[in-house]
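Why should sequence recovery work at all? Because a backbone constrains its sequence more than one might expect. Tight turns favour small or flexible residues, buried strands favour hydrophobic ones, and helices have their own preferences. The token representation captures these environments compactly. In the example below, the structure is given first.
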């Protein structure tokens, strides 16, 4: 199974080099066939130069540039359209996610489920230097989603997740242009009947640069997409569910 890793990046010159290096080292150790698609979204620092330099040394690194309107969701969607793998993992350019967890996702997507979801908020999961206010908002938001959809899974709002390519196809059309894509994909995947496995994951704060996430700017957009998917579940009588004959089939440990 070929893996595409989609990495949205904006002004990550201080992080992207390490992020790519750590991913390559870990995925090579696993012996996987993969591509790393970095989607730049109008960076004004040396992000692009850094990616180009590395891409010229390793053809598995691909740089995409979102030349149109900017936004996290737009950039990730560009990456998803370009991905050639049988499965996709979306991971952050700032090095917050652990490459070990990308390998865990890969094996889940091969043998266990259509989607690989991590949780930082279960036994075995961890966060390092998570901003306190963001943590409170995160826990409230995830509890709200959990109750609304009747889920046990408690980390929907983290973008770092893995999907087989049929899942991405089955979630279209996608509506989110910003960070709200982060909840649109997993919620639709669940509501539309794709299977998922949850594993504990680690997260640590970025070493360089600033977070661009703003709860104030994104709150209503998150609510829009949450209610959109909730209404789909409530009112559409399963019209958008995955076809019955597309049940999950394991790949076996083929690489
Ligand atoms: N393509 C793109 N990526 C973005 C944008 N804003 C943030 N990112 C990337 O998305 C990831 C998460 O963003 P970050 O600002 O760290 O948010 P936080 O981790 O939620 O605090 C990082 O890899 C950023 O480089 C954007 O507007 N466009
Ligand atoms: Mg971050």
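From this structural description, the recovered sequence reads:
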């Amino acid at each position: 199974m070929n893996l595409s890793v989609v990495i949205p990046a904006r002004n990550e010159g201080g992080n992207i080099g390490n992020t790519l290096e750590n991913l390559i080292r870990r995925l090579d150790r696993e012996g996987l066939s993969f591509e790393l698609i970095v989607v730049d979204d109008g960076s004004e620092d040396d992000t692009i130069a850094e990616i180009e330099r590395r891409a010229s040394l390793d053809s598995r690194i691909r740089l995409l540039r979102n030349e149109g309107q900017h936004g996290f969701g737009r950039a990730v969607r560009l990456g998803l359209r370009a991905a050639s793998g049988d499965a996709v993992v979306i991971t952050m350019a700032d090095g917050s996610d652990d490459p070990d967890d990308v390998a865990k996702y890969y094996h889940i997507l091969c043998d266990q489920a259509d989607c690989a979801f991590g949780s930082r908020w279960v036994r075995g999961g961890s966060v390092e230097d998570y901003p306190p206010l963001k943590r409170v908002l995160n826990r409230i938001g995830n509890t709200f989603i959990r109750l609304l959809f009747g889920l046990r899974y408690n980390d929907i709002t983290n973008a770092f997740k893995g999907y087989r390519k049929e899942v991405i196809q089955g979630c279209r059309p996608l509506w989110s242009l910003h960070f709200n894509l982060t909840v649109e994909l997993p919620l639709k995947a669940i509501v539309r009947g794709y299977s998922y496995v949850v594993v504990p994951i680690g997260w640590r704060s970025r070493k360089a640069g600033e977070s661009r996430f703003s709860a104030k700017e994104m709150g209503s957009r998150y609510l829009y997409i949450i209610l959109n998917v909730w209404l789909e579940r409530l009112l559409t009588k399963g019209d958008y569910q995955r076809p019955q004959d597309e049940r999950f089939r394991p790949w076996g440990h083929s690489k």
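A few observations help interpret the result. Helices lie at 16-30, 47-57, 72-82, 99-111, 132-149, 165-170, 181-191, 215-235.
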